[in-house]
Specification:
- The protein is α+β, with helices and mostly antiparallel strands.
- Helices cover about 25% and strands about 25% of the residues.
- It has one domain: 4-Layer Sandwich (CNF1/YfiH-like putative cysteine hydrolases), CATH 3.60.140.10.
- The protein is globular.
- The chain starts with a helix and ends with a strand.
Length: about 250
Amino acid sequence: MIAILTKMLKNFIFPKFKNIPNIKMLQTTRLGGFSSGVYSSFNLSSNNDDNIDDVNKNFQKLEQIVPKINWINQSHSDRVIKLPSKDLDGDAVFTYEKNLVCAVRTADCLPILLGNKNGTMVAAIHAGWRSLGLGIIEKTLDIINSDSEIYAWLGPSIGIEKFVVGSDVYNFFKKNDPKILNSFTQYHDKYKLCLPTVAKYKLNNNGVQKIFGSTIDEYFCTYNDNKRFFSYRRDKVTGRMASLIWINN
């Protein structure tokens, strides 16, 4: 059993917030699961044509090392959920309770994990371009109202060189969040946009200075890293990874 568990852990990423030992984080990859074909192999979404038995086996495997996971129903909104809750429709989730896992699923969108210095709060944000433009980071931080400094970890997402968007995305930000327009780079008749750069700007402007992960200490591009990550933009039909955070006993 120990050997099996050790092998499984090698396929995950375990970020850490320095000097906050009771906050635990885990980032899954596409490796080490039961799914096959385009969903190979650690797909954590049943909202596709993957074999449901394989997906359930993936969930069971993850639950061997993570306590109760609260899977939210993501819709690219700006809705924030406080756990525990029966209503799990939203794109950001937080809690002040121990062993309640905040989790988001992605395959190009940016996952953001938050924890505070006192180790009394954790949060997970599903930050696609639409949610970022609607202000999900700002709303999450405002609702959390943390009693100590907040740290952030930015997980795997599509990189700027591969995230080419049209004028519809540019105009969406122009209408809803014009301060972000300088994060767009003109690319022929379209634009390139870096989700981690936008997130870092928003976090900084809302008092979060300790930011780690993608484009900071290490770089995770879902599109370029076919071996480790699912990417919707690259493959169209694909699985989902999970970013999880919780307060340990």
